[in-house]
Amino acid sequence: MIVAFSLSPSAGDETGGVHEAVAEAVRVVRASGLPNETNAMFTNIEGEWDEVMAVVKQAVDAVAAASPRVSLVLKADIRPGYTGQLSAKVQRVEEALQD
């Protein structure tokens, strides 16, 4: 499965930024060893249900350490039997664009 998720603390720093808290969540994801990527809006992570959801919970806990309230947006692509889809899905679109 692939999960795209976004976390944000309820309050930012003195400039309204949330990057420090979000960086803590990304550290958790990267330390998990699961395939992942981060873009301007979401962090994507690929693996089995239990391992991916455990990492999402740990990331939430990391943001919660800096804020009493956390917002979580999560979208999942659940396709049993498929791996390597984090890049394969994008590759198929790129190939279709070449046609």
UniProtKB/TrEMBL annotation:
It comes from the Bacteria. InterPro entries: MTH1187/YkoF-like (IPR029756), Thiamine_BP (IPR002767), UPF0045_domain (IPR051614). Gene3D superfamilies: 3.30.70.930. It holds the Pfam family Thiamine_BP. Residues 3-94 form the Thiamine-binding protein domain. GO terms for cellular component: cytosol. Belongs to the UPF0045 family. PANTHER family: UPF0045 PROTEIN ECM15. This is Thiamine-binding protein. It comes from Mycolicibacterium hodleri.
